[in-house]
Amino acid sequence: MARVPHVVADTGAFLSAAPLQDIAEALYTVPEVLSEIRDRPARRRLAALPCELRVRRPRPELLRLVTEFSKKTGDYPSLSAADLQVLALTCQLQAEIDGPGCLRWEPQDKVRLSSTPRHPEAPLHLAGFHLPAKHKPAGKGPRQPGPGSASAPPEGDEFGSFLYWRPPLPSIEEELRELLAISGSPEPPEEPRSSADGASAGEEEEDEESDDEGWITPSNLKQAQQDTGHCDTAPIGVQVGCVTTDFAMQNVLLQMGLHVLAVNGMLIRRARSYILRCHGCFRTTSDMTKVFCPHCGNKTLKKVAVSVSDDGTLHMHFSRNPKVLNPRGLRYPLPAPQGGKHANNPHLVEDQRFPQQRLSRKARQKTNVFDPDYLAGASPFAENDVHSRAAHLHLRDAALGAGRRRLNPNAVTKKFVKRR
């Protein structure tokens, strides 16, 4: 397999024990990725890496542009500081080789989706299963109902039927017959079926189809590998790539026009954008930094995948899980709000006031003994407090002879002493 000249590795590439020496000619990473690798086996693999690992930092202006781009695509809340550094380094290497004009700094308005007869919420790419496209074998058309049979259901009941929401999976009976013919085993002759047991035979056939669907067989192994991304084809003409297992990073890389190299088959093939949809008032917003709905003010915003068709129609892909909102905290009443500087109150409204958690005057006046400008004793560069109430009342610190003399105000003192 041809190796890529320049490859940037993420933390997931080191943790998944990917053969990076077989993928890249020159391997790059950022210091934040190395600090994230903490377990002993990954550290040992990193120390014994059979290729040179170059540690570089991206330019600050590229890091700022990548951050703004990830906010536009909606993946910024899912990215860490190390992820943004890896994305910026990939952009920097691509710009050094092909020039800055090869990068896209604005996400595409329209996203092309392959037309499929499946329902949008039908499961796709299930782990361990392969669901090929349905092919109607010749001579197996729909059975014509007899004159005494019941009439077909009206079109209005199509969406309420079970078959619409759960389409039947294709059968692999023909593929098994081909395998039996190849192996040389004689195929048993088909016995003619009477018309009396036609309905029961059809029901048995449907049961066999539903039981045998979705399995990976030697005949559909290649197709399953292509659908799940386990392809043996090497990237041709790719100069810069990024090895990552993070779907948010893969989405940003694909929308920027960069190449993503998979290490375990998990690869995003279509660019998707995300918006926030309120499950209370059903309004949407593209500001991914929002926590509360800007229309109704409730904390009911959820991330929804959005795709745009060729004619500009917006399609939102919802989750099939009915428990979209977390009901945690709705069973028992909220505790009484706490006051003070270190209060830990739940965030209930967008304009709720929180303590600023500022350092105290004593904490700000502490000197660092490891500071090169540290001076023993009273430093002439210490901060002078001139804004607090104690400074306005000319109260000095207790260590200098003012204030209360008791070192521990909580100490128990005997007020009544028994006289002799």
Q: What can you see in these coordinates?
A:
Pfam families: PIN_6, WRNPLPNID, Zn_ribbon_NOB1. May play a role in mRNA degradation. Endonuclease required for processing of 20S pre-rRNA precursor and biogenesis of 40S ribosomal subunits. Residues 268-340 form the Nin one binding (NOB1) Zn-ribbon-like domain. There is one protein chain. By secondary structure, the protein is of the alpha/beta class. Among the domains are: 4-107 and 236-261, Rossmann fold; 272-367, no CATH class. Helix content is 26%, strand content 10%. It contains 13 helices and nine strands. It has a five-stranded parallel β-sheet with strand order 3-2-1-4-5. Strand 8 and strand 9 (314-317) form a beta hairpin. The longest helix is centred in the N-terminal third of the chain and has 18 residues, at 81-98. The model is unreliable at 110-121, 145-164, 229-233 and 398-404 (pLDDT under 50).
Quaternary structure type: single chain
Task: Tell me the structural class.
Answer: alpha/beta
Give me the count of strands.
9
Number of helices, where a helix is a run of at least 4 consecutive DSSP H or I residues: 13
Write the layout of secondary structure elements.
Layout: E1 4-9, H1 11-15, H2 20-23, E2 24-29, H3 31-36, H4 40-47, E3 53-55, H5 60-73, H6 81-98, H7 162-165, H8 173-183, H9 198-212, H10 221-228, E4 240-243, H11 247-255, E5 259-261, E6 273-278, E7 284-285, E8 301-308, E9 314-317, H12 361-365, H13 389-392
Parallel strand pairs: 1-2, 1-4, 2-3, 4-5
Antiparallel strand pairs: 6-7, 6-8, 8-9
